[in-house]
Design brief:
- It is a single chain.
- The chain has about 350 residues and is an alpha+beta fold.
- Helix content is about 30%, strand content about 30%.
- It has helices at about 15-30, 35-60, 85-95, 180-185, 215-225, 255-275, 300-310, 320-330, 345-350; strands at about 1-5, 60-65, 70-75, 75-85, 95-105, 105-110, 115-120, 125-130, 135-150, 155-160, 165-170, 200-205, 225-230, 240-245, 275-285, 290-295, 340.
- Helix 1 runs antiparallel to helix 2 and helix 6 (about 255-275) runs antiparallel to helix 7.
- The radius of gyration is 32 Å and the shape is elongated.
Length: about 350
């Protein structure tokens, strides 16, 4: 969808067309004032030229974007490809052209600028550097082609409303003060996961970049080549992640809710990489007035769905108080899952640590 606007001097406003036409007939037929008819005719001619140029430019030119990624992480830098069509026609007409781009909150161009202006030369393809700054859905909010017409006829603004958008996911980088293994083990009596149990080794295989602890040194010595252990497949560990963004008193939104979201993103990533099944509860209401709940699953698809859920959290959402949220979790969580709470108490533990 394109919107065309023309900024022009007041004397060449389209609303004055009927007035100029009437003045032309008036000056032609009355003596002593007929020279003014030439002046009015010149103005009408300039208005016709502007209409013709506007039609030629709008029909010949266009703007398109090609983005490789729809999902970005915080602090990611990508390149957005922009193509301008009709460059040859603009050169024939001698029309100076520029493109003005404005990004939404959380997205910037080079040097942390949200506004970027490109002067169109002989090239049809341009590469725009994009920097993801803040979690959440973002997009290019404004994109307009500007054509400066000759003879002070004005400027044509063509605004394109079909613009690229992204979802910036929270970072999954590990926090230095956060011992993810202890949280993962929870309150179990046996402090190890049933996954990759040393007592359940099935055979060996050729080494393929597995962790060092999975190398079978005895088989390696016998064969003369690095061999990795093959474990018998076990039931997956199951975890219920409870993200409570309430403040220390159990209501409202915590001032450091972004840190809680990042901790949840890291834990989901960590557990999925360890072949665990994960479900996620967030203390906010969805469109159907239900608690935001991502059902139990595993694999990369589950990680993607969880990160997108976390990316869409906004401070204007409707949040549920801690007491009510806990009651809902007790009724709906997986019965055999290990619960991991990510709330204000976790931040307090990290600060103490």
């Amino acid at each position: 969808m394109r919107q065309v606007e023309v900024s022009t001097p007041s004397l060449l406003d389209d609303k004055l067309w009927p007035a100029y036409t009437g003045m032309l007939f008036f000056f032609v037929w009355f003596p002593y004032v007929w020279p003014f008819a030439y002046l009015v005719g010149v103005i009408l001619g300039l208005m016709l030229i502007r209409k013709w140029l506007t039609k030629q430019i709008v029909e010949a030119t266009g703007l398109s974007f090609h983005q490789k990624e729809q999902l970005l992480f915080v602090n990611d830098r990508v390149s957005l490809k922009m193509e301008v069509t009709g460059i040859e026609r603009l050169e024939e007409l001698g029309i100076p052209t520029s493109v003005r781009l404005v990004t939404g909150h959380g997205l910037t161009f080079d040097e942390d600028q949200r506004v970027h202006v490109i002067q169109i030369r002989n090239e049809a393809t341009y590469s725009l550097p994009i920097h993801a700054k803040q979690r959440g859905p973002v997009k290019i909010e404004e994109c307009s082609l500007q054509f400066r017409l000759p003879f002070w006829l004005g400027t044509i603004f063509v605004t394109d409303h079909t613009l690229p958008s992204w979802i910036i996911l929270p970072s999954i980088m590990r926090q230095n003060r956060f011992d993810s293994r202890l949280v993962r083990m929870g309150d179990r009596l046996v402090k190890h996961s049933p996954l990759k149990d040393p007592l359940m080794i099935q055979s060996t295989k050729r080494y393929e970049q597995e962790p060092v602890k999975q190398i079978d040194w005895i088989a390696t010595a016998k064969t003369g080549k690095l061999q990795a252990k093959v474990y018998q497949r076990q039931n997956l560990d199951t975890f219920t992640l409870v993200l409570d963004l309430s403040g220390p008193l159990g209501n409202g939104l915590h001032a450091r809710y972004e840190e809680l979201i990042q901790q949840a993103a890291y834990l989901v990533s960590y557990l999925v990489k360890e072949d665990c099944k994960v479900e996620l509860f967030i203390n906010r209401l969805d469109a159907d007035n239900h608690i935001d709940h991502l059902r139990m699953s595993d694999g990369r698809k589950q990680l993607r769905l969880a990160l997108v859920r976390l990316a869409w959290i906004h401070e204007s959402d409707r949040f549920v108080a801690t007491k009510r949220f806990t009651q809902i979790i007790d009724r709906h969580m997986h019965p055999h899952a290990e619960m991991i709470r990510i709330d204000a108490s976790l931040l307090k533990q990290m600060s103490v640590g």
